[in-house]
Amino acid sequence: MLPAGECFHETGDEKKTIQEKSHMNMAALVGSDQVSESTDKDDLSLYVSAFIEKEVGNDLQSLKKLDKLIEQMTESKMQLEEQVLTISSEIPKRIQSALKNADESKQSLNRLLEQEATLSSSISSHLQAAQPWMDDLRTMITQIEEIERHLAYLKWISQIEELSDNIQQYLMTNNVPEAASTLVSMAELDRKLQDSSCTHLLGFVRATVKFWHKILKDKLTSDFEEILAQLHWPFIGPPHSQAVGLSRPATAPETYTNLETLFCQLLKLHTSDELLNEPKQLPEKYSLPAASSVILPIQVMLTPLQKRFRYHFRGNRQTNVISKPEWYLAQVLMWIANHTEFLDEKIQPILDKAGSLVNARLEFSRGLVMLVLEKLGADIPCLLYDDNLFCHLVDEVLLFERELHSAHGYPGTFANCMHILSEETCFQRWLTVERKFALQKMDSMLSSEAAWVSQYKDITDVDEMKVPDCAETFMTLLLVITDRYKNLPSASRKLQFLELQKDLVDDFRIRLTQVMKEETRASLGFRYCAILNAVNYISTVLADWADNVFFLQLQQAALEVFAENNTLSKLQLGQLASMESSVFDDMINLLERLKHDMLTRQVGHVFREVKDAAKLYKKDRWLSLPSQSEQAVMSLSSSACPLLLTLRDRLLQLEQQLCFSLFKVFWQMLVEKLDVYIYQEIILANHFNEGGAAQLQFDMARNLFPLFSHYCKRPENYFKHVKEACIVLNLNIGSALLLKDVLQSASEQPPATAALNEIGIYKLAQQDVEILLNLRTNWPNTGK
User: Could you tell me the superkingdom of the organism this chain comes from (predicted)?
Assistant: First the structure.
């Protein structure tokens, strides 16, 4: 190998030989196959060029590496050739093995197919030979199933006949309890067969149950009625007459034993009685809640009372007067009261002992209430268009319902009179009549001489709201309407009444607005203030009602209705759902707007009077007033007297005529206007010497502000403009000069703000303070 320095002396033949060897080695590197396509040749050339550039580069001294590089390429070529030969020899063997395996699999598959064909032929021949047996077997199975059905049918008949025979045997031996128990078993069989398609079997079972039920019921009812008669049932007279039934001296123990026995036996018959007799239902239009029939023994106990009710309150009897619903309603309440003690002390223990969950008193009441519902259903169509009779009926029914629920614990989930009043035709008429009489009441209350006078005007503790009689009567009317409809069974009906109440509130608001407009010229008068108190009272009460549980439940019901009908936006629905708004919000907003308008008018009226009274005070010679040191005692400016007297008189007047909350809003609104007026029209419109500034400070701090000290602890805080202006005008000369320099030299806001805060200025801006400083005339002569 030549030294590096001698490379430059190589001949042309040597260079050519080196290049040929290099090309040969590169050819060995990329393989012995010749590339036919031009794109492959280009790629190979690029690869070789890149390889030489990487290994040799532009440094010719690197050519000394070529021998070593050639050796490496040759070795790589030999390794690749060996790999190719090895793979070429192994591939045919693998192919041969795969072909052999495929051939064996094919032969195995053919053998399996032959076996499958043989087996399929064998099965087909076997099925063909067994087909007659299968047909015969299917026929036999069908016959067996039919026989089994017949056998089951006969078993049912046998079971029913056996039960029937048992009942007959028990009755022949006068074993009525066992007969009743057996009838219960038969009724249970009847229930089990309800889904069967065997109509004749069903008819047989039902006829058998009906036959024995009638016999047992007639016998037990007759015996039970005899026992009740011994106890002088029913108790028609006053409550003290129950003592006869509760304490029979000689026969009481035996009688009560028989009563318990017969009651329990009749209770057993209730199962079959429900099967045979559908409970009497009123028409579907009344939407009564689903309920089972009254238990059989209670039905028997109710029978004499039902007869009496129908005798007296149906047909042409003198007691059946359509204008006197209170007669039959009071009669039913009296019957319930008369029998309560007996039912609780004698009948309820029997039911408890029998394991029944029935409440004897409520079951008895339910039976009597059904009589009332039937009577109402018959009477209401006859008086629907007579407003006075209909209204009287509704009033009496509501009183009856209240007594029934409160005194006798009748559940609201049972059928009651409110279901009858909720029927569409009756309900719409009720709404119409309610609206009519409410409007008439509103007319009378507003036209009354005492309409605008508070009932409690002489009682200070009670008369905080200063509510006029018309407003209190109106809210009492709304409260009464709420009590009348709150027990309605349907939320949709309650919502309709709620809309009626909202309409009445809006109507009353309009009437108040009309009266208010008539009193506009006397906005400080007694009637105007009474109207304002009325508006405030109604708004306050409605806001309180909005948090009442009953109206919150109505709000939820309204939310569901609005969501179904898409009558509100998502925002409004969200507000209702989150309780941010209430069902009365629209009314409250209108009332609050009216209240604000009326207060604004009152404030404007007083403010105009104050401005007129302040004309002389505004023109005082603030420039030439003597300084405080020149006066023995500071006294109020004579020109301020009319202003302060007017203000004092109006405050006293309105404090007496407006309720506390309204008066508070009034004086705060007035102070706000007064503060701005004195600041802009008196202070900024004048210049002040030292005496003038001191006099202004004295008039405000010692005379104006104390007028409001009765209503708040620090009245000066409501006169921020005036208070701070007095501070600026009364600064001593040194402090004023220093403040003026600070304000003029301060390029940034914080230093000026800090200086103002230090002397008690928080409301006025920097520019305002500079203006006030310029209004002072007692500056020293500095030659500027």
Answer: Eukaryota
DSSP character string of 722-776: HHHHHHHHT--HHHHHHHHHHHHH--SHHHHHHHHHHTT--SS-HHHHHHHHHHB
Q: What percent of the chain has pLDDT over 90?
A: 56
pLDDT tens-digit map of 554-611:
988 888 876 666 656 666 666 665 666 788 999 999 999 999 999 999 999 999 999 9
- pLDDT score, position 29: 39
The two three-digit tokens of residue 270, written as one number:
């209730």
Residue 623 DSSP label: T
* Residue 76, token pair as written in the block: 């790589």
422-431 tens-digit pLDDT: 999 999 999 9
Q: If DSSP codes are grouped into helix, strand and coil, which group holds residue 240?
A: helix
Alpha carbon 367 to its chain centroid, in Å, reads 37
Distances (CA, A) of 776 to 217, 488, 621, 728, 781: 113, 76, 13, 9, 13
Structure tokens at 585: 């919000």
User: CA dihedral defined by 176, 182, 184, 189, rounded to 10 degrees?
Assistant: -160
* Distance in angstroms (rounded) separating the CA atoms of residues 89 and 354: 101
Distance in angstroms (rounded) separating the CA atoms of residues 675 and 29: 104
Half-sphere exposure of residue 166: CA atoms within 13 angstroms, side-chain side = 17
Long-range contacts of 633-640 (CB under 8 A, 24+ apart): 634/694, 634/695, 634/698, 634/702, 636/698, 636/699, 636/702, 636/703, 637/695, 637/699, 640/614, 640/699, 640/703, 640/704
How far, in whole angstroms, is CA 314 from its chain's centroid?
A: 46
